[in-house]
Design brief:
globular; seven-stranded mixed beta sheet; alpha/beta; 36% helix; 8 helices
């Protein structure tokens, strides 16, 4: 059974992984006959109150919070090797752009969390597929943009697309129910809640993206 790494960034759309996207990703992986292996960095995050969308001033651990979504079955990303996985997927949520990298604050000048950066670059070098959902293509753009100029999508938002392109990546507009496949670099991306107004819209694009990712596994 193929093992697909799912990199989480916390628990909650404003300060971690978007929970709908994360669960839809796990479901799509299972439905397509593969095994999800949840991963997250062991680091602290700023907490957002999801009722009023304001920071609380408190901090929580990204790995501990991600374990809520993974039902406790999760590993520190620094302990995972490229040889452990057949592909890797990044659900969206603001945590992808804030905790896994600094795109949220620094745009195309941002950097990627070191353990995440290592695994992304190792996967790309090993020619193993990478999938990024919603705002998570920002992680891939910062990690690989200058070296590989991959095709990526965050949907159709001009400002975010411009920032993605400024990393050296090539942004491609995409509908919510579709995905962009970079066959050369084995990278798949889909807009999900960058465009979705309903969970069913996000689900359709994520299902396509996961299927496309699994089909790229050699």
């Amino acid at each position: 059974m193929k093992k697909i790494g799912v990199v989480l960034s916390g628990c909650g759309v404003r300060d971690g992984s978007e929970i709908h996207e994360a669960v839809l990703t796990l479901l799509a992986i299972d439905r397509n006959g593969a095994k999800a292996v949840c991963l997250a960095p062991d680091m602290e995050l700023n907490v957002v109150n999801h009722l009023n969308m304001n920071e609380t001033g408190a901090t929580r651990n990204v790995l501990v919070e991600s374990a809520r979504i993974a039902r406790g079955e999760i590993s520190d990303i620094k302990t995972v090797s490229v040889s452990d996985l057949d592909a890797i997927v990044f659900p969206g949520g603001f945590g992808a752009a804030k905790n896994l990298c600094s795109f949220a604050a620094e745009g195309d000048k941002g950097s990627v969390q070191p353990d995440v950066l290592r695994l992304v670059r190792e996967m790309a070098k090993a020619k193993k597929p990478i999938c990024a959902i919603c705002i998570a293509p920002s992680v891939i753009a910062l990690a690989l943009g200058k070296d590989l100029s991959p095709q990526l999508t965050i949907g159709t938002d001009p400002g975010t697309a411009q920032a993605i392109a400024a990393t050296g990546s090539r942004h491609v507009d995409c509908a919510v129910n579709d995905c962009v496949i970079d066959s050369e670099h084995l990278i798949v991306s889909t807009p999900a809640y960058m465009l979705a107004g309903r969970i069913s819209e996000a689900a359709e694009g994520i299902e396509k993206a996961i299927k496309a990712t699994l089909e790229l596994i050699k």
